Amino acid sequence: MREPERIQTVVIGAGQSGLSVGYHLAQQGLPFVILESNPRVGDTWRKRWDSLRLFTPARYDALVGMPFPAAATSFPTKDAMADYLESYAKHFELPVRTGVTVTRVSKHGTGFLVVGDDFSIEAENVVVGMSDYQRPRVPSFAKDLDPSIVQLHSSEYRKPAQLAGGSVLVVGAGNSGAEIALESARNGHRTMLSGRHPGHVPFRIESFLGRNVFAPFVLRVLFHRILTLNTPIGRKAHPTGPAQGTPLIRTRPQEIAAGGVERVAKTIGVENGRPVLEDGRVLDVSTVVWCTGFHTGFSSWIDLPVFGSDGAPVHKRGVATNEPGIYFTGLHFLFAMSSTMIHGAARDAEYVAKAVIARARRKAA
């Protein structure tokens, strides 16, 4: 391996969070690099299922300094979001290296060593600009399903052609599960949706109420300003364990039923190679799509004392509590309910970037 490079700040991940941090560092003239494992900026969005559209109108999907190129009240596709991020990085000439996977971050002298397969970088600051949706989570009994049953995690699902002929069970009734189940049913599969109903927005977000009430009040006021760690109600709403499913935003129960999707009980195990529901029913299905969330996965490659007993980073608004110089952005409810939305992630990234800039100035002084 070559001698380590020396770069003041390394940002891991060129999504909306990492690029936002990079924008603010660039504005202050600080030396940094953004490392992205995918071949292109925006590929994290491109790899999601083909029909996905954002829940937030375009007016809330821009990062600082560059408007989103779409009608303000339209809901961009995932590919439009990916292309916007790629254009953002090019427009501001952010130093992004693509196709670079970080395999280890560890302590190195007074700073840190960021290592990949064929590179290493010594840094004073490391910003993990990635969501905590790192490793797909599936129940342990998934391995006991009959090998003839096609199993996909939501992160692997792209289009209905991946589903085997016959019945489909979608496990997990949150936003991803509901949308994938409807798409499966529309393509002729008998489809069952398993899991607890997480609640729902009572009107279509594309309607007048959705565009003019839900978007400005719920997204910009309730999720962004009220449900934060600065308010008692926000601290109560903050999850203490793994991220829970948010209420259904684009799909409503009546649409799920009208779309031909059958709601069934929670999936709890396997009997004779077939999935078993909480009510004892055994399902004969050809495909199971696991919309069951993710593990954080950070502790497998970040070798630093920055995690709690649950494997989640211990931080204050993205600033690691036990290790000065380590930062996180993009986490679920990092500061507010809006943290996983574009406008919330951008605000969190600005806070983290200011912390990095302040630390760099203190060290320089």
Query: What do the pLDDT scores average to?
Result: 93
End-to-end separation: 33 Å
CATH class of the largest domain: Alpha Beta
Helix percent reads: 25-40%
Main β-sheet description: 5 strands, mixed
CATH superfamily of the largest domain: FAD/NAD(P)-binding domain
Would you kindly provide a written description of the structure presented here, covering whatever features stand out?
By secondary structure, the chain is of the alpha/beta class. The protein is 26% helix and 21% strand. The chain folds into 2 domains: 199 residues, FAD/NAD(P)-binding domain (3-Layer(bba) Sandwich); 107 residues, FAD/NAD(P)-binding domain (3-Layer(bba) Sandwich). The chain is built from 8 helices and 21 strands. A 5-stranded mixed β-sheet has the order 1-7-6-5-18, with no helix packed on it. A hairpin with a 2-residue loop joins β14 and β15. The longest helix has 23 residues. The chain is globular. It starts with a strand and ends with a helix. The model has no long low-confidence stretch (mean pLDDT 93).
